[in-house]
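Let's study my pick:
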Amino acid sequence: MLYFVFKLNLDFNMNFAKINDITIHFNHLKHDENKPTIVFSNSLGTDFRIWQKCVDDLVKDFSILLYDKRGHGLSGLGQTPYVIDNHVDDLIALMDELKISNALLVGLSVGGLIVQGVYHKRPELVRGLVLCDTAAKIGNETMWNERIEIARKGGLEALVEANMQRWFSPNFHKNRQIDLRGYEAMFTRTPLEGYIGTGTAIRDADFTPNASSISVPTTCVVGEYDGATNPELVEGTSKLIPGSKFEIIKDAGHIPCVEQPKEIIRVIREIETVI
């Protein structure tokens, strides 16, 4: 018999707030008023637990905000479909509720779109950006319409195999089969309308015209095996942002905070030295 022991250093309380038209599930790890704050925004079909290994390290030196965006995790569904401003306005309202400003925002995939949107609407909330496996525009209308149609007809189970191929590297598929089953469960247990609603928001979002106006320190990173937002796409966005850094994370797919958390921790700690 196999036994698995999970070491969880975080204070994972069940915290909820009424934000706009929904209830948002969040965790605010705030142990020192003088510590700078990092806000994490996760990807489509995941919840804030994907950041766990990063936060276990960073919480020693930073205040941390984790949250489940609308239609994901334990947060409410709200009216669907969404536009990207629904997600952006939720994060802004949550930060205002918790009196967080001048934070480093770390966004993965659609989370990267969300934190870009926060910067463009409320730049005073943001002192730096880490854009993980994301871009100013992700995919095209045809691609998203096809995925949405597959989900409507067959549920998220019809998308899970292809998604796992995009999300994780060959080594992860070969050597971390039990973890893979767990992330399949996280994906398929996402509310269907939350997935479709957020997919619609991604389809229609385009921050390309705004990217050159980003003036805070920014680092763009991408897993070398990312099948959702490939390195060329992420580098293209990095080139639009004045002074931004670009890095490829080796042996990682679309979710490097799961596969290579030490590398994401390093990137965050490095950008913190210049902001």
User: Anything to note?
Assistant: The chain has one domain: 16-272.
